[in-house]
Amino acid sequence: MSVSRRSFLSAAATVAAAAPYRGERPPNLVFYMADELRAESIGCYGHPVVRTPNIDRLASQGTRFEQCHVQNPVCAPSRCSLMTGWPVHVRGHRSLYYALHQDEPNLLRYLKEGGYDVFWFGKNDLLSTDSFASSVNEAKPGPGAGMFTKNPYQQTDSRYYSFLWEAGGDRRKTGDYANIQSAAEILARPTDKPFCLFLPLLYPHPPYSAPADFHNMYRPEDLPALRPSNLRHLPRFHNRLRKRMRLDELDEAHFRKIQAVYLGQVSYTDWLVGELLEAMERTNHSKDTAIFLFSDHGDFAGDYGLVEKWPNAMPDVLTRIPLIARVPGLEGGHVSREIVELFDVMATSLELAGIEAKHTHFARSLMPQLTGKAGDGARAAFCEGGYNTNEPQCFEPLAQFNNAANPYYPKVALQNEEPDTITRSTMIRTLTHKLIYRPDDQSELYDLAHDPRELNNVYGEHSYQTAQADLFRRMMDYYVRTSDVAPRQVDSRGFPG
Predict the structure, then answer these.
(1) Which CATH superfamily is domain 28-381 in?
(2) Domain parsing of the chain, residue ranges
(3) How far apart are CA 137 and CA 132, in angstroms?
């Protein structure tokens, strides 16, 4: 599969105001993927306290997507959708334990087959072992030292399972920093081929612990009000998870401290982004390299009296992520306020690279927005999660966590012992409303125009009957249109021999 510069230039040249990239080859691609980074906890997305100067600068130089949502609130399924352009139901990628295989398409393989050298530095919640050779030229996870510290609480303490841990050490002695340095080495290499740097890093994933000079960067009392835990008409997991993890015994101050440390982790992520941007500038790659910054999903971080995430939970703190793209020669400082979805990165990257997808997918190229145009104001985002009780392969294995000393033990035990808390769910989100439908549990409907923090579930209320019915119809249309993908091969109907 050849790399065509013409395809990239023709797309970029459709907007006269934008000066398209005019290199001798398609742009290099850098994908900075933070783990559990929610959009609202970044400065350029409106947080009033957090300091993220490097991410903010990147947004000022490129396009910031105000409403980007993921296809699943858990790491692996979200990443599989990102790389394929498929909703997770198309091939059953709904668990942590089913990765992309050799017979499935993925963006990295397209790039490698299209002439890119593909480098991977970071964690793997994406590819099965049989897919690496065809998708990646060089990969390493980087050392894990410095990523996890110590739980300061005794197991009998109600704070033990809150994931609030001690401060870390030197900011330059973490696995994420080591991976950024590996990326810098690639940037410094002379090469005649375009390259892709995939950086699936760990911060700001819990435990809530940041390097020493970031851990206590923010005072809990300075933060905006957290979303409360005592809301009405919520699905079962809220109360059951809080009780299992003893979070219902903790006070507001503890949850505010959790979020303050989470913001410290976000600021550390921002510093890492700054190190990467500096390496790109030092090696003169800011002029020929497109960089995308995004996450796989968000984090409760103390909101709703919860921590981490849950597989069938879909508030904006989990589904809404940052997406910022800077492409040489294209629009700078543009804000796209319309809804987009994470897997659009795949379609956009292929268009930049001049590579045609050979499989049916549902992602949309964001090239119009990258050249200063408005997006689709009528678009909706869709997310889905949870497991059926007859799918034991999807549940996190209790035997692996069957030790109460493990901080994940109560969460995994709840999934396995009370599977009615983790049943299948699906979400549609527009600019004004969100519907989360659970056939076997409490559904949710939010009027985002009047309730942007999702505090008042109006599902079933008479005054929202029309809006609810319209969202159900759109959701049905979506599932009919995306229920599967037909292979592109055409088989003979003749008899053998």
Answers:
(1) Alkaline Phosphatase, subunit A (3.40.720.10)
(2) 28-381
(3) 8
- Secondary structure (H, E, C), 34-52: ECCCCHHHCHHHCCCCCCC
Position 166, amino acid: E
* Cβ within 8 Å of residue 389, ≥6 positions away: 419, 420, 423
Half-sphere exposure of 166 (CA within 13 A, CB side): 9
- For residue 331, name the pLDDT band (cuts at 50, 70, 90): confident
- Say which residue, 405 or 18, is predicted with more confidence: 405
Q: Which of 56-70, 201-215, 281-295, 393-407 has the lowest mean pLDDT?
A: 393-407
Give the angle 459-300-99 at the CA atoms, nearest 5°.
95
- On the question of pLDDT at 7 being above 60, the answer is no
First and final C-alpha spacing in the chain: 33
Q: Residue 259: which H helix or E strand, with range?
A: helix 252-282
The Cβ-side half-sphere exposure at 120, using a 13 Å CA radius, reads 21
Mean pLDDT for the chain overall: 93
**pTM greater than the 0.85 cutoff:** yes
Q: In what order do the strands lie in the sheet with 444-447?
A: 381-385, 425-429, 433-437, 444-447
- Closest of 81, 73, 85, 75 to residue 385, by C-alpha: 73
